[in-house]
Amino acid sequence: MQRYLVGIDGGGTSCRAAVADATGRILGRGKSGASNIMTAPDTAILNMTDAARSAFIDAGLDADLVESAHAYLGLAGNNVENTVAYVLPRLPFYQSVIESDGLIALQGALGNGDGAVAILGTGTIYLARTGADVRSVGGWGYHLGDLGSGGRLGQMALQQSLLAYDGIAPQSAMTRAVLDEFSNEPRKMVAFSQAAKPGDYGRYAPRVFEFAAKGDDAAQAILRQSAAFIDLALDRVSEITDGGRLCLLGGLSALYVPYLSTRHQERLVPPVEDALSGAIALAKATFANMMDGAA
Amino acid sequence: MQRYLVGIDGGGTSCRAAVADATGRILGRGKSGASNIMTAPDTAILNMTDAARSAFIDAGLDADLVESAHAYLGLAGNNVENTVAYVLPRLPFYQSVIESDGLIALQGALGNGDGAVAILGTGTIYLARTGADVRSVGGWGYHLGDLGSGGRLGQMALQQSLLAYDGIAPQSAMTRAVLDEFSNEPRKMVAFSQAAKPGDYGRYAPRVFEFAAKGDDAAQAILRQSAAFIDLALDRVSEITDGGRLCLLGGLSALYVPYLSTRHQERLVPPVEDALSGAIALAKATFANMMDGAA
Asked: Tell me, what's the ipTM?
């Protein structure tokens, strides 16, 4: 009986799945909604199941074959122990391994070789591989980390707008535009902040880059400060990998490149494959012995 | 019939009340638990009532006289409209006015004259009075403001400890001590951060000052950055008051003085009276006509 590998790339806004044969050749792909196992684990399980079934259908296979699949899941929030313990037995697959979304991204971007990736999105995390050793740097989340992330950039844009409103900092086109979105009423912005998640702040991050490109002082100051944080984290993973390959991933990566130090710009390499391909490669490596036994 | 004035100074950790005669002479004082009208309005109402009744008893008066009193309440969270609308009709007093905790502090510290106060506690807010005009600067809360506040200082100490853990920033005695409180397990610190309120972070603020005094580089850097923010806000209120009197209040005020610019240090004045006395003075001014009519 043919056994199938499933790779899952699960994030806070969407979930992607691929199905592959035992050699790791991808046969089909599927997509579904958010799979945030920390904030909504049951929804995440449903969406991951949907995405996997869609991948089987895309491959021209019976969707019920998910139940015999060996799955490798790269998920944000995998470092919260209770969450993984809740999700793992509720997944529809024959065997499942939950690892970080960063690890599958690293695998996809750099294959089996040494090097480092920086994932610059709503949050930030850095991974460095030397031989069999993979170390993560950062990735502690919005409240105490994620410096330079989309969530933090958005928060800084709103914060700066309030400083400008109060006359503590100069007004700029950006601070006026941001305040204008709240009808120029700081109380509305404060009300927003009471319930805002990192992703809510992150929606303002692209605007910081837009205004900076137009020469906005406030936006440029925010990006200088944020890029300096990222430079320091890149220094750290470069130290671990002895200056090996470095790859930027995530929604903000292309936007950030011009603001990074030239010492990093010069050595950036493009990703070889995407995170989903990385998940399939790790599924193949993880389940190789088991699959041989079952063959 | 003698009419009484009540002043309330309500905060997130305790609530203080005073009762005065119609001339504003304080007859008794009382204290009770937290009165955070934003997060726990019913508890706040109970505690404010308790504190006021205790003040009447302290004055040798019947506690039920609170029902005939004219009360002036200085409360954090008074700028959240729905909250005030909920609390106001549920208070035990004959007449009540809810204003900000900042306003009663300003009145207590500077009396009726012009000048500015900075309240440096778990949060921060600045008030400037010129004639009849009182303007507040900052006070937008932890998420988007409160730069230099106890909440922010604590957050920075924890954040810096994680950067040191990752090798992105140098370790110091402070970063080691903070991490040690979480058993040197960043995940425990991250779990703390998921639910931490500004007051929870604020408990680490005094330690930042302690380590800075011992020459800790990380602690000193946090305080330099935070004091620079406060300097800018003080510049702003000094601009509004044309360099008038400036008074620092709040739990961190004395600790911050050595880190502020000398341009501010040199013109600091001590508070004339406390916030509760300010509340009574404002109660007297607010209810003067009404009391005359009732006399």
From this structure: 0.88
